[in-house]
Amino acid sequence: MRSIHFISGLPRSGSTLLSAILNQNPDFSASMSSPVASLVNATLEMTGAGSEFYDFFNEEKRIRLSKAIIDAYYADNERPVIFDTNRMWTARLHQLVELYDDFKVICLVRDPAWVMDSFEKIYRKNPFNYSRMFSAQTRGTVYSRCESLLGGTVGISLTALKEAFYGEYSDRLLLIDYDLLTKFPEKTLKLLYQFLEIEYFNHDFDNVEYAADEFDYTLGVKGLHTVQRKVEFRERRSILPPDLFDKYTEMAFWKDTAGSAASVIGPKNNKQ
Fold first, then answer.
1. What is the average pLDDT value for the chain, to the nearest integer?
2. Which one-letter DSSP state was computed for residue 109?
3. Rounded to whole angstroms, how far apart are CA atoms 69 and 113?
4. The architecture CATH gives domain 3-265
5. How many Å apart are CA 199 and CA 263, to the nearest integer?
6. Which residues contact 140 (CB under 8 A, 6 or more apart)?
7. What's the confidence (pLDDT) of residue 120?
């Protein structure tokens, strides 16, 4: 019997790396991203009260359509455990619980300052290729680029994760800190399997590879989803100005697990 789980969380935090690792298990299927969440959302928009077709649909039909989209997308995938990846699943838990009885959401997280730093590093690696990540108005300096990310990709992912972390279905979440995943991959994966209640598979952390060159090319950002062969932590100095780094590092709300039933593999700062 097929089961489905979801990968979400913050960008530049290891979701592509995790997918590459999980795919080593012949029972698992995971990718860096999928259009499923967007397809479901578009369908609900077309059948909702703001649509001319609203009278043709009731709640039961909308639920059937939503689940049918997911089932149809993975119909030709024969692996028994599917991991669908999208940053917005954390804002859709109230829908997922109506579609599936038993699912978990794996959320990759990272100090937001290092998320911004990672985007900036990629940007500077492509100095003569102006990507779609920024507009002519926002690409000017590191300050405008970071503000653009906070108002877009990073900010949306961050608030969606916060919604789920403090929401009524937070027990479905497992947050995995990027640094711990890269420093202790085997220990981290064993805890993930334990959370999923699946027997552990022996992964090869010295031979993990993944690349999505065509997808990155369309964005104009070379190397955005390239995974190195060996899973390891690489320490370096941040290229962000200190004031920006301090500003964004304070946004790592999940380090304080008070008020949430989520499981967290990462540094914690519990308030008593």
1. 91
2. E
3. 36
4. 3-Layer(aba) Sandwich (3.40)
5. 19
6. none
7. 95
